[in-house]
Amino acid sequence: MSSRLIIALDFASAELALNFTQQLAPQDAKLKVGFELFVAAGPDFVRKLVDQGFEVFLDLKFHDIPNTVAAACQSAAKLGVWMLNVHALGGDKMMLAARESIAGLVKPPKLIAVTVLTSMDQAQLAKLNISQAPFEQVSHLAALTQACGLDGVVCSAQEAQQLKQQCGGEFLLVTPGIRPLGSQSDDQTRILTPLAARQLGVDYVVVGRPITQSKTPLAVIKAINQDLAE
Ligand SMILES: O=C(O)c1cc(=O)[nH]c(=O)n1[C@@H]1O[C@H](COP(=O)(O)O)[C@@H](O)[C@H]1O
């Protein structure tokens, strides 16, 4: 069975990222390329990972006018990635345009929307004039995302159980803010362990620093995969 682990390749160069990925096989984990690596290494690096057989989540969190986001999604899909994301706060017209832009492809990537970043807590939302608790905002944005026909959302594992009830089992929940017991929370606030996330119904966990900054990354990956297979 393919892994439910997505490793965040937050490295500053293609060379550093390749040093890390050469230890991995595609069945060990899916790989996420975000802003840091994409800006440094570009689309060629993404194509290289895809050619090596990895399922790649291109995490560029598109958030712009519908026409721009639709075109960006098309360009991203041409790289052969497995998953793409946009910001739900871009609104329904933007999400609909994004979905339609890739709908006709033979093998479209999964398209998901970021709800409330896992680094955000209620106090930070309040400063954005959002008076709701994080879960209420996540729930609202997940409903909007689902109504636009997207495949799922990025949220915190803390919201997973209620979201699965709300959106149904097929709607994908992808959760960063995952920390194995004993690891630092860093800048994440809404966190859970891999095992707890899986028990709450999460489909894919995103883990970066606890793996990429570990002295024994393969052991951490193995332990997380065991937890996710429970
Ligand atoms: O879209 C994302 O991937 C994302 C959304 C979110 O709400 N929180 C979040 O941490 N992420 C990403 O998930 C990864 C988490 O990395 P670590 O905190 O190092 O495990 C980073 O690459 C973030 O950019």
UniProtKB/TrEMBL annotation:
One of the record's GO cellular component terms: cytosol
Key words, A-Z: Decarboxylase, Lyase, Pyrimidine biosynthesis
Domain of life: Bacteria
Residue ranges of domain Orotidine 5'-phosphate decarboxylase in the record: 4-224
Species whose genome carries this gene: Thiothrix eikelboomii
EC number: 4.1.1.23
Function: Catalyzes the decarboxylation of orotidine 5'-monophosphate (OMP) to uridine 5'-monophosphate (UMP).
Active site: D59 (for ompdecase activity), K61 (proton donor), K61 (for ompdecase activity), D64 (for ompdecase activity)
Family assignment from sequence similarity: Belongs to the OMP decarboxylase family. Type 1 subfamily.
PROSITE patterns: OMPDECASE
Subunit structure: Homodimer.
Residues engaged in binding substrate: 10, 32, 59-68, 118, 179, 188, 208-209
Keyword Lyase: yes
Enzyme type, top EC level: lyase
Catalysed reactions, semicolon-separated: orotidine 5'-phosphate + H(+) = UMP + CO2
Protein name: Orotidine 5'-phosphate decarboxylase
GO molecular function terms noted in the UniProt entry: orotidine-5'-phosphate decarboxylase activity
